[in-house]
Amino acid sequence: MARHGILIVLSGPSGTGKGTICKELLAQNENLHYSISATTRSARPGEVNGVNYWFVAPDEFRTMVEQDELLEWAEVYGNCYGTPRRWVSDMLWSGHDVVLEIDTQGAMQIKKKFPQGVFVFIIPPSLKELEDRIVKRGADSPAVIAKRLGCVQGELGFATQYDYAVVNDEVATATAKIAAIIVAEKCRMERNSDLIEAIGKRGSID
Amino acid sequence: MARHGILIVLSGPSGTGKGTICKELLAQNENLHYSISATTRSARPGEVNGVNYWFVAPDEFRTMVEQDELLEWAEVYGNCYGTPRRWVSDMLWSGHDVVLEIDTQGAMQIKKKFPQGVFVFIIPPSLKELEDRIVKRGADSPAVIAKRLGCVQGELGFATQYDYAVVNDEVATATAKIAAIIVAEKCRMERNSDLIEAIGKRGSID
Question: Beta A38-39 vs A79-84: how paired, if at all?
Answer without folding.
Answer: antiparallel
